[in-house]
UniProtKB/TrEMBL annotation, chain A:
This is General transcription and DNA repair factor IIH subunit TFB4. The keyword Cell inner membrane does not apply. Gene3D superfamilies: von Willebrand factor, type A domain. One of its GO terms (biological process) is nucleotide-excision repair. The keyword ATP-binding does not apply. GO terms for cellular component: transcription factor TFIIH core complex; transcription factor TFIIH holo complex. PANTHER family: GENERAL TRANSCRIPTION FACTOR IIH SUBUNIT 3, TRANSCRIPTION INITIATION FACTOR IIH TFIIH , POLYPEPTIDE 3-RELATED. Belongs to the TFB4 family. It comes from Gloeophyllum trabeum (strain ATCC 11539 / FP-39264 / Madison 617) (Brown rot fungus). Residues 312-325 have a biased composition (Polar residues). Pfam families: Tfb4.
TrEMBL record, chain B:
Belongs to the TFB1 family. It comes from Gloeophyllum trabeum (strain ATCC 11539 / FP-39264 / Madison 617). GO terms for cellular component: transcription factor TFIIH core complex. It is found in: Nucleus. Coiled coil: none annotated. Its main location: nucleus. Signal peptide: none annotated. This is BSD domain-containing protein. Residues 103-140 are annotated as: Disordered. Keywords: Nucleus, Repeat, Transcription, Transcription regulation. GO terms for biological process: DNA-templated transcription; nucleotide-excision repair. The lineage of its organism: Eukaryota, Fungi, Dikarya, Basidiomycota, Agaricomycotina.
């Protein structure tokens, strides 16, 4: 009936963000411990729901990203203290994931400031991993898993995010989105803590995944099951919740202002809020006549102060409220 | 009612003094003392116009006709200054008429319009009456070309200016071809909400495209002339002969033209000629396919036509030898003598005349193609295209240049453009840091504490997992929220549109009208799409006036929407649905109005 499915789960494990998330003044505080229990329950559910389902877990830590677990990783079988009251495969996954997180946290260097989160690395690794498992013939040398092309899993990525957007990662994230589109990988996002992230909103939207902002954080497991459990194939029959408003307006490249009408470089498509003599991205020089014409016919109210381009942009508001489209 | 006169002047024709008149339908000249004009030329006949040099002894005007290039010569007989200005008036009027004729001329008989005059060029100091389009060479018949170089017939279809008849025609055509635009035009212009000129402003490209499409001339059809007989009852066949068909047959088969000249009207009349031709062997030899065998039975011996039968063109040497030198690079025979030396096998795939039966057909096709090509290039006379080819031919000896294909050159200088956003860091970090640091500063996180806390949280994960339970209240709340999310999307997808058609149409009308006002508003605020579209762009004051006018219209949108809402209420439709449907529109209108208000003070100073 339905194909086996694969989830690559990406865990955002920024200690400081988790600290903030657990603070009691939050409407529904969520500690890392509680998060992990609910997550593990979800992972077990995924493995149990179909025998052929596969799973990979990636951790995004400050300044690094690692694979914590994968169904195709033989190492995962070495488990110590076996709990007789637990289904063995669950135990393998659970202990492996937690142990690896512990190891990685242990090896974090203790600097004054927390380094930027390695979300892009984790996302890229997940994409590479998926690329490998959906093209088994090219990479699989020995038969660790017997993968018949007809039973290849339907792959998707689930990002559990607690950190805000990291602006420098805009371009790599966009590139990851394009790769995901090409691989036909759906990216689901569950924003567990913190403000909405525009990049992940777009990642979910552009890959056909669903973006959930977790309101009731005390009901994380419920959200995971209802929104992220059904495989992409199943979602054709079964609607899953997702966010219905995304801000698609463009920001000018010069001040990052959201513009309704901008001026676009005819060579590289950079967007500017006012006509510029030279494109700051591709250095194309525009004809002075065009510039004059554009400036002359611009509404007087919109003409920028001359110094506007030089002064550092003052951006009191990060983003305008997202407008429903 | 007598025709109204556009202009008049004293002028002589063939040395006889008289009065030259331009009415609203004709150009006419009457000799002094005579009542009826002796020359009367309808507008449609006017094809060209020539003037004598300024400063010449006589002020003359020559009008060429569609049917007669020689046309008529008039000499203005008033004293010079008066005569000159009179002629200027005629020139202006006639130029417009000719331009209009030219744009509506039948595609088959394109007539050149003056650019240079055989008599004298148009005076300096004055702009030429018509913008010569491309290199007009009136001495030669114009090449039949698919892409004629006509741009627009006089005057830009810009805003403000008087609308010439040809522009009007163009607009009409655009509207006819574009029902949606026509509806908009009907709703906005015909009801007087905006002016005709305003409507077309910003749509110049549509007119330009139409003008370009109109000026495209149909080339010769590529099909071989092959009249298909229709069988009628009694086994007879019927071929309908049109003048076009006759023309095509004569052109394709000169031998038939020859036969026609020699035998019509004597001994054959026209009808008999064609009747016998279509039954003759000659006709069947001309057919484009071997289908002729099917109608073999009607082929008769014909003493007249059989004289014109040519021998089947199926010898190894074609009957009609090409007189051109074969280019060495496409001549298969050119390297024949080397074959023994190099050990190449003799080419057996391309043997001319291997199948004798197809030779006549192949040759017929080739000749046909050649004729077509020649007609496209303009067979008689050195047109530009032809000259270009001849130029190329003069370089034939430069063999290296011939095999030097540009596409195969290694592209040396494609370093490309490096896209590097200036201050990328600043750009991306700009806004977001504030959010992050805001959080951070609020809580003064000690990274070490946070890390320790994280590790602590991992202890006894197994215990936490086995004690995991979901709060019922939280789970229920999230289920409800998620269900609502899904439901909202589902209902919009499945709900039927049950708004009555009348109301729905009013909503659409309101929407299109407001959209047009918005378009007009923003186009009067923002730069035009390109420099080229309008020769005389509106002044800032004009633009401001227009923006204000449009803002005035837009301001009424809310009223209109409210009226719709009331109608909905009266018809038992949930008014909220109408309001929601119109919301994007009212939002857009508000945006424009807010913009208009805030910008005004700056404008006023
Ligand atoms: Zn800007
Ligand atoms: Zn550029």
């Amino acid at each position: 009936m339905d194909k086996p499915s694969h989830i690559s789960v990406i865990l955002d494990l920024s200690p400081s963000q988790w600290h903030l998330s657990s603070l009691p003044e939050n409407p529904h505080p969520l500690s890392l411990r509680s998060f992990l229990s609910q997550l593990l329950a979800f992972l077990n559910l995924h493995i149990a729901s179909k025998h052929e389902n596969t799973l990979a877990v990636f951790g995004a830590f400050p300044s690094k990203s690692v694979m914590l677990y994968s169904s195709t990783d033989p190492e995962a079988d070495n488990t110590e203290n076996v709990n007789p009251n637990m289904y063995h495969p669950f135990q393998v996954v659970d202990s492996r994931v937690v142990t690896r997180i512990e190891e990685e946290l242990e090896s974090l260097d203790q600097s004054e400031e927390e380094a930027p989160i390695g979300l892009v690395g984790a996302l890229t690794k997940a994409l590479c991993y998926i690329n490998r498992i959906i093209h088994p013939s090219a990479s699989q040398s020995s038969g660790t898993t017997s993968e018949d092309p007809t039973t290849l899993p339907d792959p998707r990525i689930l990002v559990l995010s607690v950190s805000p957007d990291l602006s420098t990662s805009y371009i790599p994230i966009m590139n990851s989105i394009f790769s995901a589109q090409k691989l036909k990988v759906v990216i689901d996002v569950c924003k567990v803590y913190g403000p909405d992230t525009v990049f992940l909103e777009q990642a979910a939207h552009l890959t056909g995944g669903s973006y959930i902002y977790l309101d009731r954080r005390d009901a994380l497991l419920q959200h995971l099951i209802m929104s992220h459990m059904p495989s992409p194939a199943l979602r054709k029959l079964m609607t899953v919740p997702t966010q219905d408003k995304i801000d698609f307006r463009a920001a000018c490249f010069c001040h990052k202002n959201i513009v309704d009408i901008g001026f676009v470089c005819s060579v590289c498509l950079s967007i500017f809020c006012a006509p510029v003599p030279v494109c700051s991205t591709c250095r194309t020089k525009f004809p002075i006549k065009t510039l004059q014409r554009l400036n002359a016919s611009r509404p007087p109210g919109l003409k920028p102060a001359n110094g506007a381009l030089k002064t550092a942009p003052s951006t009191p508001h990060t983003r305008g409220p997202s407008t429903p489209r | 009612m007598p025709p109204s006169t556009v202009c008049t002047a004293k002028a002589s024709y063939k040395k006889a003094p008289g009065l030259l008149e331009l009415t609203d339908t004709h150009l006419q000249w009457s000799q002094d003392g005579k009542k009826a004009p002796s020359i009367r030329v309808p507008y449609a006949e006017l094809a060209s116009l020539f003037c004598s040099k300024e400063g010449a002894a006589q002020v003359r005007l020559k009008v060429g006709l569609v049917s007669d290039d020689a046309g008529h010569n008039f000499t203005f007989t008033s004293p010079q200054p008066v005569a000159l200005s009179e002629r200027e008036t005629f020139k202006r009027e006639l130029t417009n008429i000719i331009a209009r004729n030219r744009s509506t001329a039948e595609p088959t008989t394109p007539k050149p319009v003056i650019a240079t005059s055989p008599i004298t060029p148009v005076s300096n100091g004055h702009p030429p009456p018509l913008r010569p389009s491309g290199a007009a060479t009136p001495a030669l018949p114009p090449p039949i070309s698919r892409a004629a170089s006509v741009v627009s017939s006089g005057g830009t279809p810009g805003p403000g200016g008087a609308v010439s008849a040809s522009d009007f025609k163009l607009r009409k055509k655009v509207l006819v071809n574009n029902p949606e635009l026509a509806t908009l035009h009907r709703e906005l212009v015909m009801t007087g909400q905006i002016t005709e000129a305003e409507f077309w402003e910003g749509r110049e490209h549509l007119l330009a495209a139409q003008a370009a499409a109109d000026s495209q001339k149909r080339g010769r059809p590529g099909a071989l002339v092959d009249p298909r007989p229709q069988t009628v009852e009694g086994g007879d066949i019927k071929i309908v002969i049109t003048p076009q068909l006759v023309h095509d047959i004569f052109e394709e088969f000169p031998i038939v033209a020859k036969a026609y000249n020699e035998n019509v009207p004597k001994p054959l009349n026209e009808a008999d000629f064609w009747k016998r031709y279509f039954q003759s062997k000659l006709f069947h030899a001309h057919r484009a396919s071997i289908r002729s065998s099917a109608t073999q039975n009607v082929v008769k011996d014909d003493p007249i036509f059989d004289k014109y039968l040519e021998k089947e063109d199926n010898e190894l040497e074609p009957r009609r030898q090409r007189d051109e030198e074969v280019e060495i690079f496409i001549d298969l025979g050119a390297t024949q003598e080397d074959h023994d030396v190099t050990g190449n096998e003799k080419d057996i795939t391309m043997q001319a005349g291997k199948q004798k039966g197809v030779l006549p057909l192949i040759r017929k096709f080739n000749e046909h193609s050649e004729r077509l090509l020649k007609s496209a290039l303009g067979e008689d006379g050195p047109t530009t295209k032809r000259r270009r080819i001849d130029d190329d031919a003069s370089h034939l000896r430069d063999y290296y240049a011939q095999i030097d294909i540009e596409d195969l050159h290694d592209l040396q200088d494609t370093t490309g453009i490096i896209l590097e956003m200036q201050d990328r860091q600043r750009y991306f970090e700009g806004g977001m840091k504030s959010a992050a640091s805001e959080d951070a500063s609020k809580h003064e996180i000690d990274i070490k504490v946070a890390l320790r806390e994280a590790k602590d949280n991992l202890h006894d994960w197994a215990g936490a997992l086995s004690n995991l339970k979901l709060e019922k209240k939280a789970a229920d709340a999230s289920v409800v929220a998620m269900t609502q999310n899904v439901q909202a999307r589902l209902t919009t997808k499945t709900r039927k549109n049950d708004i009555p058609e009348g109301l729905f149409r009013q909503m659409r009308t309101c929407q299109t009208a407001a959209n047009e006002f918005l378009r007009q508003f923003w186009s009067s605020v923002y730069p035009p799409l390109s420099d080229l579209q309008s020769a005389n762009p509106p002044t800032p004051a004009q633009k401001a006036a227009k923006a204000a006018k449009m803002a005035g219209y837009l301001a009424k949108t809310h009223e209109k929407v409210e009226a719709l809402v009331r109608t909905a209420h009266a018809e038992g439709i949930d008014p909220e649905r109408v309001r929601v449907a119109m919301k994007p529109l009212t939002d857009a209108v508000d945006q424009a109005l807010t913009f208009h208000r805030t910008r005004k003070p700056v404008n006023a100073k």
